[in-house]
Predict the structure.
Amino acid sequence: MDPCQELNDKLIQKKYNVRLKDVVKTFTKRLFYYVFDEHENELQSLKKTFLEISNNLDINDGETIWKEFQGKFQGIRAKLDLDAIAVVNFDPATKSLEEVYLACPGFYAISIYRLSHELYVQNVPIIPRMMSEYVHGITGIDIHPGATIGDSFFVDHGTGIVIGETSVIKNNVKIFQGVTLGGIQVKKSLESTKRHPTIEDNVTIYANATILGGDIVIGTNSTIGANVWITQSVPENSLVTYQTEIKIRPKKNGIR
């Protein structure tokens, strides 16, 4: 038998504990709640669940990982408060911080990203992706936990946003629904390279813009208009728009 085929057969036959998806879903929700409403007894329960998940995934040093992760909670909360303030300051439809914390899907997606990212930088396998896929299913916002995102990040509406693993987003960036920060090609050989763009400070990217490539930099203070397709860097203080002709004319008789 072909050795590759034999290996594939073994992988297919291996039993994967897919029910962990439900455990991680509950863990992720409770972790989000804890960051905003700390209770010591809840922290112990979260730790126990994390260790159970780690054990099921054959992740070593679960105690050490959790201790380091727990030490990041205060800093994560501080970053999330800056994200929430950015929403209130920019979005005319949002009236209060309470509304952001309780009813803003973009903020929820960012929150789970910031939590999962801390596990990602600790080189914890699988769990960060499971957390991000949970919130992706809830909000329609797909932020890879490996992305690097600065302070005061604002996602408006959010549905359909895709932010790839090696994306770098700096401070005070605003992104609208349908935006893709992606790779210009998909090859397994590019696994260890920067495949996704860099977005500098104070950039706004409007709906359905697509920005592709690891060498692409969108310069500081630039505005990217809706529906544009970008595969080259944009200088700072630029306005990028897609122009199309829209005609408005009277209807002919019989046309509805």
